[in-house]
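For reproducibility, we list the full input for the S-adenosylmethionine complex.
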Amino acid sequence: MLSYRHSFHAGNFADVLKHVILIQLLEYLGKKDAPFCCIDTHAGAGEYALDSDYALKNSEFATGIGKLWQRHDLPDAVARYVQLIKHANHSEMTRYLGSPLIAQQLLRKQDRLFLYELHSTDVDLLTAAIGRDKQVKVFHADGLKNAVGLLPPQERRGLVLIDPSYELKTDYTEVVNTLIAMHKRFATGTYALWYPVVERSRNKALENALQTSGIKNIQLFELGIAADTDEHGMTASGLIIINPPWTLTAQMQTVLPWLVDALGNDGAAFYRIHTLVEE
Ligand SMILES: C[S@@+](CC[C@H](N)C(=O)[O-])C[C@H]1O[C@@H](n2cnc3c(N)ncnc32)[C@H](O)[C@@H]1O
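The corresponding predicted structure, in tokenized form, follows.
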């Protein structure tokens, strides 16, 4: 039984980095007219009310989008993200878009989006948030097990976002097995794996497993708002990207130091840009 609900966390510092990069990946795919396919294996509810009891319980959005909303000095990639969220709001920020709705906004008429969500409440919310849209298909199913069956997509161009909650500790190994299986079927696809830093040893094991997976061209981008600790929950998070656009590292070299200043708790905030496996 899954208890994780993204509504408690929507718009936090981890969502900021994840969604900034997601937009960059999708906009890069959208530069060519040829269609692309996007698969989100852990879709969540699609959108979140920031004035709900869930969001207000710990007000995590205040550590993320809440610190960016009013700023006028945003780097381009962050400005694009804030613009997209602002577009979904009126004068006050009460609505946050999750990865499915962000992706839906960026589809052109030739593109397709596949969404997997296991939680029965969130899959209903997701279906309602997506609305009637022939380009989008929502599955109430296990994305880690089933999405591999969609590969290679008929478009032969695309992005797979893997964004588990890591509620199950087996997720750390399952994501690697899934990426290996997916990459075997669709080696030219772009893959984005989100991870939290809660206990650094788990991240080291995840990075080692990917480094010895046989998959090439893997880049890591991480934002830490505080120093590593085993005591206070998530202090950093990142995305591991297989086959990133060639422009992404240079963009993140501007974006990540800026986010460290904007979102960091103190002088121990940090970022990492690391090539896990060369091209
Ligand atoms: C971190 S949240 C997703 C957030 C979303 N991707 C976003 O950025 O807006 C993870 C979601 O995955 C769901 N989930 C957990 N295990 C899953 C699985 N094996 N397949 C599909 N969904 C799963 C959880 O119910 C939760 O809603």
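Residues 13-29 form the longest helix (17 residues). The beta strands are 37-40, 47-49, 95-97, 112-116, 136-139, 158-162, 190-197, 218-224, 236-242, 270-277. Both points were considered when choosing residues for closer inspection.
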